[in-house]
Design brief:
The complex is a heterodimer. By secondary structure, chain A is an all-alpha fold. Chain A is built from 7 helices and no strands. In chain A, helix 5 runs antiparallel to helix 6. Chain B has helices spanning about 5-15, 20-30, 35-45, 45-60, 80-85, 90-115, 120-130, 140-155, 210-225, 240-260, 260-275, 290-295, 305-315, 340-360, 360-370, 375-385, 390-400, 430-455, 460-475, 480-490, 495-534, and strands spanning about 35, 65, 75, 115, 155-160, 235, 290, 325, 335, 375, 405-410, 420-425. The chains are: A mainly alpha, B mainly alpha. Chains A and B meet through helix 3 of A and helix 1, helix 2, helix 4, helix 6 and helix 14 of B. Chain A: Component of the RNA polymerase III (Pol III) complex.
């Protein structure tokens, strides 16, 4: 505090220590104060030394690039979910762009991991009703099953006895859980006198005539 | 964890595992141990995604899990392990030099998959090797197993911690997460497996359009329901051992540069003899007698015992003190001062950086201050024989970049500035830390620039890939020269030029990353060794 009052009047501002000790002699001009942050890319005074080249360097370089590419292909590389496009498209149903239910593609040893990390995959039956998987050939019999059931339930609704409805719903559920297809089909067929797949309600009558132009239409 | 390290970790995770894993990983590195729900809530990602990411991270030994009280499982990230991902190519190359292609592929598979069982590794590597062999030849599992066992014997591959065998299953519900333990003795114990088989080549006829053959093959492999004999025993690459090997290499080449080939061979022999006896953090190796060294020299070297003794004396007297004499029994007991060697290497790195950044006169001042430990301003000018103004300028430049620091020595108890000595000094530890931080920043910059360059030219890269695919398929179906020419011309000459430039730049940036990583390794080893001694 005493020195500050005494230092006034000199050419340069007084500092708290003897500047000669640090090497700034009397009367030396100090560099101008910096009023802005240093430039982002300061000019290089010395060129950098060239990189080592040679067989080893090139091999390691190639290895590095290969590794990078390989890791992108492994199942450990998790891609964010493809964002939904603006309009829902028909083909979306048939493209399975990721593992079912966000489960992982690889099989870790679950004994070593905490239990909470296991993602439960929903059971197959529910998937059948929500997502139509592209395994069409395997599913034809099951689809027939469903259409038979649907037709039946639609018909039955007209005449209904509630107990029958309940029975059918129960049977549907049972069927979904246990997948005993043949047994159920026979049971349903016993209830009605007619084989459902032969039923033709006459709506397609007019459409068939385009197939054979030879036959005359009566 | 400094900001630079976190940024580098984030870039590495994103490049190798994708954005979701990166987000979770960086969050864990920043905030420390957290349970699952907190992670999901703080990062705003769905629980399923967090679970997936954590599975990947744990598989690759980047995150560990611990059960805390009340059954909460906490996950903690290992930042330093994430930074090791930069060094993977070097590990694989080292394995190649030591154990040829088989070793290289084993280490590569282990690094890419985090941890694997021995049988899985052997099978995969045999398949990969068979692919590259000529038609009709296959790789035998036995050979791959042998190389694997050799890798384990020299500690390059080690066992992962095991799930403890639960004898009493009636102590209530199983814990939410297993606590993995590993016994020192068991770490390198190879289970007795008889892996018989040969590598399978993926034949081109199987890659036909009908998916049927491919669908059949997986079913066949699951049909053999034999239990895997080494189920539950996982192996991982032992990075510390690789680091030891790099350190030894650095010391040997330093001795070769300073003295001559023979002395470096002697040092190499000494290091080899103490590989398994010296613990990894030790400041110096176990003492070795001159007779033992003489017996263990490589077969091609016939130098007489006297010449060996002379070399050893020379090495021990060298001011760098790589080799020290610890006794006289057995013809002279010699040790290698690992800590001092690392210190010299780190110092050499610092000097080289100062020289390349500021010029050789600055380097002279730097070496002077290093040698004399503490110097005043005036003394620096005198000893370095550099005019005062320039010396001042250089000192301040180095001071501002923190290579040199100021030490105050007060003459009076009130620390009055006019009566205080200000001495310039170099603290190697803090300068090394500062340089390491800069290295992390540099690598992050290099990666970012490379990604930027690739993104800029993405369209062009995709086009060239498509053209290559077309050419390949046309060549496979036998096309004429003229047609191939036409397809190749789809890429115009300036575009080709652009692609060339891009390739050159990306290669250069990649090579820079590898080079900076070597510096990072030296500095990290030195800092670690110093911290262990304190």
């Amino acid at each position: 505090m005493a020195s500050r009052g005494g230092g006034r009047g000199c050419g340069r501002g007084q500092l708290t220590f003897n500047v000669e000790a640090v090497g700034i002699g009397k009367g030396d001009a100090l560099p101008p104060p910096t009023l802005q942050p240093s430039p982002l890319f300061p000019p290089l005074e010395f060129r950098p030394v060239p990189l080592p080249s040679g067989e080893e360097g090139e091999y390691v370089l190639a290895l590095k690039q290969e590794l990078r590419g390989a890791m992108r292909q492994l199942p450990y590389f998790i891609r964010p979910a493809v964002p939904k496009r603006d309009v829902e498209r028909y083909s979306d149903k048939y493209q399975m762009s990721g593992p079912i239910d966000n489960a992982i593609d690889w099989n870790p040893d679950w004994r070593r991991l905490p239990r909470e990390l296991k993602i439960r995959v929903r059971k197959l039956q529910k998937e059948r009703t929500t997502i139509i998987l592209p395994k069409r050939p395997l599913k034809t019999t099951e689809d027939k099953e469903e259409t038979i059931q649907k037709l039946e339930t639609l018909e039955k609704k007209e005449e209904e006895v509630t107990s029958e409805e309940d029975e059918e719903k129960e049977e549907e559920e049972e069927k979904e859980e246990e997948e005993e297809e043949e047994y159920d089909e026979e049971e349903h067929e016993e209830e009605t006198d007619y084989i459902m797949s032969y039923f033709d309600n006459g709506e397609d009558f007019g459409g068939d005539s385009d197939d054979n132009m030879d036959e005359a239409i009566y | 964890m400094t900001q630079a390290e976190i940024k580098l970790c984030s870039l590495l995770l994103q490049e190798h595992f994708g954005e979701i894993v990166e987000k979770i990983g960086v969050h864990l590195i920043r905030t420390g141990g957290q349970p699952l729900r907190v992670i999901a809530h703080d990062t705003g990602t769905s629980l399923d995604q967090v679970k997936k990411a954590l599975c990947v991270l744990i598989q690759h030994n980047l995150v560990i899990h611990q059960v805390h009280k009340r059954g909460v499982v906490e996950y903690e990230a290992q930042c330093s392990r994430v930074l090791r991902m930069l060094r993977y190519p070097r590990y694989i190359y080292t394995a190649k030099t030591l154990y040829s292609d088989t070793g290289e592929l084993i280490v590569e598979e282990l690094l890419l998959n985090g941890k694997m069982t021995m049988s899985a590794v052997v099978k995969k590597v045999a398949d990969r090797l068979t692919e590259t062999m000529e038609d009709g030849k296959t790789m035998d599992y036995a050979e791959v197993s042998n190389t694997f066992v050799r890798l384990v014997d020299t500690h390059f591959v080690q066992r992962c911690p095991l799930v403890p065998a639960t004898e009493n299953s009636d102590t209530g519900p199983p814990p939410p997460a297993p606590t993995l333990v590993i016994n020192e003795k068991d770490m390198y114990l190879v289970p007795k497996l008889s892996l018989i088989g040969k590598g399978k080549r993926r034949r081109s006829s199987d890659e036909d359009a009908t998916g049927e053959p491919k669908a059949k093959r997986p079913k066949q492999t699951t049909d053999n329901k034999e239990p895997i004999p080494d189920d539950g025993i996982y192996w991982q690459a032992n990075l510390d051992r690789f680091h030891q090997h790099f350190r030894d290499q650095a010391i040997v080449s330093a001795v070769a540069n300073r003295m001559d080939q023979t002395s470096s061979e002697i040092v190499r022999t000494m290091l080899r003899m103490s590989e398994v006896t010296t613990p990894s953090g030790a400041p110096f190796t176990q003492p070795l007698s001159s007779n033992e060294i003489f017996r263990s020299l490589p077969v091609g070297y016939n130098i007489s015992k006297q010449v060996l003794d002379q070399y050893l004396t020379l090495l021990a007297d060298d001011p760098l003190e790589f080799v020290g004499k610890s006794g006289d029994s057995g013809g002279g007991m010699y040790v290698i001062n690992l800590h001092k060697a690392l210190g010299s290497l780190a110092t050499a790195t610092l000097e080289s950086v100062v020289q390349e950044r500021f010029g050789s006169r600055c380097a002279r001042i730097f070496r002077l201050v290093l040698q004399k430990k503490h110097l005043e301003q005036k003394q620096v000018e005198d000893f370095a024989m550099i005019p005062a103004k320039e010396a001042k300028d250089m000192l301040y430049k180095m001071l501002s970049e923190n290579f040199i620091s100021l030490q105050e020595i007060p003459k009076t108890p009130d620390h009055a500035p006019s009566r205080t000595f200000y001495l310039y000094t170099v603290s190697i530890l803090s300068a090394a830390r500062m340089l390491l931080h800069r290295c992390y920043k540099s690598v992050a910059n290099l990666i970012e620039r490379r990604q930027f360059e690739t993104k800029e030219n993405k369209r062009l890269l995709e086009k060239s890939q498509r053209v290559e695919a077309i050419i390949a398929s046309m060549q496979a179906t036998g096309a004429e020269e003229a047609q191939l020419q036409e397809i190749e011309e789809m890429i115009t000459a300036p575009e080709r030029q652009q692609l060339e430039t891009l390739k050159r730049n990306v290669n250069k940036l990649d090579a820079c990353e590898i080079q900076v990583d070597e510096t990072i390794f030296l500095l990290e080893s030195y800092i670690e060794s110093t911290m262990k001694r304190q």
